[in-house]
Design a protein that fits this description.
Elements: H1 8-24, H2 27-34, H3 40-56, H4 79-89, E1 94-101, H5 103-112, H6 115-121, E2 126-135, H7 141-157
Parallel strand pairs: 1-2
Helix pairs in contact: 1-3, 1-5
């Protein structure tokens, strides 16, 4: 649920594109602003800082750490790249559940739209379920019920496991 792919650049992008745009369209925000409840200097400084970082930070591929060899070894990969590589290399299905009202999920959505992630996210092994109204912790009982429902449905859709040899010897019928 809400996979963690946090990096400063993706965090700033998620806040600028999701949070700030929602605030500008929010009646509540404008009413708070008119009533003087918004600390304008601090808000503008934070917005300016995030947008500046977003515009001036070079886009880094999630493929490897700067300065690493062109074909990095697994330990040279950053966390996000290692996570993607792990998902690519494993042969088992994965269920991703994302809440709609969460910056961590927003960062994951941004990351999963990038070229390195897009094919993986559209593969048969990864299923994504969205709960648009849910917060990060799925704090309401109806959201938790949806998470449970998606998880159970996903588990039921999995192919059966192969039979494993018994660890217990079978009794002999020769007696």
């Amino acid at each position: 649920m809400n996979p963690w792919v946090h990096q400063e650049s993706s965090h700033n992008q998620a806040i600028v594109t999701k949070y700030y745009s929602a605030q500008l369209l929010s009646t509540t925000f404008w009413l708070r602003l008119l009533r003087g409840e918004v600390k304008m200097a601090a808000a503008l400084l934070e917005a300016f800082t995030r947008v500046t970082k977003l515009l001036t930070t070079p886009k880094q591929s999630a493929a490897h750490v700067p300065g690493a060899p062109s074909r990095p070894q697994p330990e040279a990969l950053d966390f996000v790249a290692r996570m993607r590589q792990g998902w690519q290399n494993k042969a088992c299905p994965t269920l991703v559940i994302l809440s709609g009202q969460d910056i961590t999920a927003d960062e994951f959505r941004l990351r999963s739209a990038q070229a390195e992630w897009a094919a993986l996210m559209h593969s048969a092994q990864i299923q994504v379920r969205e709960l648009p109204e849910a917060n990060h912790t799925f704090s309401r009982s109806d959201w938790r019920a949806q998470v449970i429902g998606h998880s159970i449905a996903w588990l039921h859709a999995l192919p059966p496991l192969p039979s494993l040899p018994s660890m217990h010897p079978q009794p002999s019928s020769h007696a």
